[in-house]
Amino acid sequence: MDKVQDTIDLLRVYNQEHIINLLEKLDEDKKQELIEQISKIDFHQLKELYDSTKKEIVIKENKIEPLPYMDKKKLSEEQREEFQKLGEEVLRKGEYAVVTMAGGQGTRLGHSGPKGTFKLDVYGKGKYLFEILAENLKEANQKYEKVIPWYIMTSKENNEETIQFMEKNNYFGYDKDSVRFFAQSELPLLDINGKLLVGKDMKIKEASDGNGGTYSSLRASGALAEMKEKGIKWVFIGGVDNALLKMADTILLGMAIKKKVQIASKSIVKANAHERVGVFGKMNGHPKVIEYTELPEKMAEEVDEDGELKYGEAHIMCNLYTIEAIEKISKETLIYHSAFKKNSYIDEEGKEVIPTEPNSYKFESFIFDAFELFDDIAILRGKREDDFAPVKNKDGEDSPKTAKELYEKYWNRNS
């Protein structure tokens, strides 16, 4: 079977002749590398994704309803104790694992390197984002006398650098044998005509397929199978960039167990009716994070009998799942969203083109799109000043400056 010819035939079928021209110019090693990469691409899926960018988005009539939640600060002493006891039991039995999504680069922060290696200027000497998370987990390990397995999702782009950074810093005192890295899956980039882009390394350019790829990447990497072998029953998934993330919140866990749900999440109340954040709700009978663009203005402003916003629970990437839920989601194909971005590429003459305008589509799925696969979700409302100090932008809101203030204030109150 002639692999080269098969590859050429496949590229012809999907109108990727420019890649055939490139193959002819490459030396044998580079040619084999590119053929190997092409063999792993699902061209049928890519064509469907490209076609979807040309379709007009039709806003369907959706039935949107509020979702009930429990407010952590309004729990009775009895509820708090019950949830805590249920949650602690899982942690003491070693049935809990944590996943940190750390595939991003710190570009928006003006930091060259993986986002988790960004140093937040707290208490004079500063702490890396990875260090802050490691401290959070070590505290839980000490409290519940079990080491929580820590899974760190990197990207192909930052995997090596992340591992080297953690090695160099001795995992910030975390048990190295309980840390496992796995890389997020990727999808090729397509230009406005549906053509694959080629990078300087003479390979097809790919980009991470969004945080919704976490589930399938857990399965593909073998991390999910490993969790099952360890007897893990509950898995927490959070981002690397929230300096106040509580990864082992026994109240959230206990509430999920008590409510007999497969997924749970922590929310914070929106700053105002028009804050541009996704909020929890039910759409067509299923839990969903409703983007601010999907929520009619009138609904966004609706309040309940206590004067609270009916759609006020913002999603803060603080999600909890049973192992069965992750297994179920990992077998599903989540909906992909396209983003139109600027990406450099090599043209047919072998010259690098650096565009000044967006020129290509990146496809990504979102972690919360999986919630719709379930009938119910348990929501625990936390507090912005206790639970949410994101480090996203270089300046202004959600920047290192605001995260530093929130972090220091929190620890001054709680130590």
Overview of the structural elements:
The protein has 14 helices and 20 strands. It has 415 residues and is an alpha/beta fold. The protein has one domain: Spore Coat Polysaccharide Biosynthesis Protein SpsA, Chain A (Alpha-Beta Complex). An eight-stranded mixed sheet has the order 2-20-12-15-11-3-6-7, sandwiched between helices. A three-stranded antiparallel sheet has the order 1-13-14, with no helix packed on it. A hairpin with a 2-residue loop joins β13 (279-283) and β14 (286-290). α5 (77-92) packs across α10 (250-258) and α8 packs across α12. The model has no long low-confidence stretch (mean pLDDT 93).
CATH class: Alpha Beta
Anisotropy-based shape: globular
Number of strands: 20
Helix content: 25-40%
Provide mean pLDDT, rounded.
Answer: 93
Lateral strand order in the biggest sheet? 2-20-12-15-11-3-6-7
Kindly estimate the percentage of residues that lie in beta strands according to DSSP: 15-25%
Largest sheet: 8 strands, mixed
